[in-house]
Structure formats: structure tokens, C-alpha cells
Amino acid sequence: MVRADVVRIGTSSWLLIPDSLLEACGIQDVVELSVEEERLVIRPVRRAREGWAEAARLMASLGHDHLLDQTDPTAFDEREWHW
Q1: Which residue range forms the structural domain that includes residue 17?
Q2: Which run of H or of E encompasses 44?
Q3: Residue 81 domain-assigned?
Q4: Whole-number Å distance between alpha carbons of 49 and 17
Q5: Which tens digit of pLDDT belongs to each residue from 43-61?
Q6: 16 assigned to some structural domain
Q7: Is the residue at 29 inside a domain?
């Protein structure tokens, strides 16, 4: 457990968190704050599509990266679709 001081500056309060704790939680530059059961909860904000490249590589290595949709033309394609 690490103790930290809350410092008041103007109308705000600041909490200095050691880098080692931030790194252990994966926190870099943006966080979400919430209160849960009278506890301040700080969570890292995940970037859009974060981890997608790694997931795609894993899927490919497992052979799970094939198309799920049909590649053969459907009746709609044959009758209705015009190029």
C-alpha cells in the first residue's frame, strides 16, 4: 500500500500518484474516474481499436480469420443488384 497526500490548489484538489502504480495499472495519459462503494476508482481509458492488430494476428495463427459471409452470389445479387 502506498500513501499519498491530497494537495489543494485553488478550487481543485490534486493527488500525486507514483509512476510505478500508474504503470502497473496500464495508465498512460487519460483516465476515467468513478466512485464505487465510497471508493475512488481510476481506470485507464482504452483507445479505440486498441489490441485489434494483436487479436487479428492471433486469429490468423489459429486459422480463425476466414470470411463468415457467403462468397457465392445470392438470389438478390442475381436479380436486384446492378453495377
Answers
A1: 6-67
A2: strand 39-44
A3: no
A4: 27
A5: 998 878 888 999 999 999 9
A6: yes
A7: yes
* Pure H helices in 1-83: 19-25, 52-62, 75-79
The pTM of the full predicted model, rounded to 2 decimals, is 0.52
Is 27 exposed, middle or buried (CB count within 10 Å of its CB: 0-12, 13-18, 19+)? middle
Task: Answer yes or no: is 17 within a domain.
Answer: yes
Distances (CA, A) of 35 to 31, 48, 75, 80: 13, 24, 54, 55
Characterise 38 by phi-psi region: left (phi > 0), alpha (psi -120 to 50), beta (else): left
Cα 33 from Cα 56, distance rounded (Å):
31
* H/E stretch holding 32: strand 31-36
| Torsion sign across C-alpha atoms 68, 72, 76, 82 | positive
* Sequence-separated (6 or more) residues with CB below 8 Å from residue 15: 4, 5, 6, 7
